[in-house]
Design goal:
- By secondary structure, this protein is of the alpha/beta class.
- It has two domains: about 120 residues, Peroxisomal Thiolase, Chain A, domain 1 (3-Layer(aba) Sandwich); about 35 residues, no CATH class.
- Helices cover about 35% and strands about 10% of the residues.
- The chain has seven helices and five strands; from the N terminus they run βααβαβαβαααβ.
- The strands form two sheets. A three-stranded parallel beta sheet has the order 4-3-5, with helices on both faces.
- β3, α4 and β4 form a beta-alpha-beta unit.
- α3 crosses α4.
- The longest helix has 16 residues.
- The protein is elongated, with a radius of gyration of 19 Å.
Length: about 170
């Protein structure tokens, strides 16, 4: 339910829970052998064994041209909302964690909000990426009276259903 619906603070839940999670990886999966072959064309020598020994990584996913952070966030958000049994109208707040926004303005959170058909709630990016999960994902819902979104954004009121999709990718090789 949106914050503008005048929910009395006394009826807000006194606990926090993760109601649903989702994830999305870019579709192009690159193995270490594929990566080594591509790097060899550029004069860089490496191998699957060398990479695995030092990093433990066997494959990675790359975004294709035209794919944006919002595309990844929307896929993950839809899964999380389905897992939580949430509808777009249930979302009160969108805080998107990214260091690779689609563009500077509008925020990627607003783009995600539009793509998901969510209306009537605040949406903003936090480019501290991992810190958003601590700052907004834990503090703002754990102690609503002390760390609520009301104290962060005056005039909006407490939120009951947060959508916090991280959307991060590195640029292609």
């Amino acid at each position: 339910m949106n914050p503008s619906s005048s929910i009395p603070v006394s009826t807000l839940p006194k606990h926090t829970r993760i109601a649903g999670t989702g994830s999305m990886l870019p579709p192009r999966c690159v193995s270490n052998a594929d990566l080594a072959a591509e790097l060899a064309q550029r004069g860089v020598e490496t191998s699957d064994d060398w990479i695995v020994e030092r990093t433990g990584i066997r494959t990675r996913h790359f975004v294709d041209a035209g794919m944006n952070a919002s595309d990844l966030a929307v896929g993950a958000a839809r899964q999380a909302m389905d897992a939580a049994g949430c509808q777009p109208s249930d979302i009160d707040l969108i805080v998107l964690a990214t260091s690779t926004p689609d563009m500077v303005f509008p925020s990627t959170a607003c783009i995600v909000q539009n793509k998901l058909g969510i209306v009537g709630c605040p949406a903003f990016d936090v480019q501290a990426v991992c810190a958003v999960l601590v700052e907004y994902g834990c503090l703002t819902v754990k102690e609503p009276g002390r760390y609520s979104i009301k104290t962060k954004l005056p005039g909006i009121g407490p939120a009951r259903c947060y959508l916090i999709p991280p959307a991060i990718f590195d640029l292609d090789l």
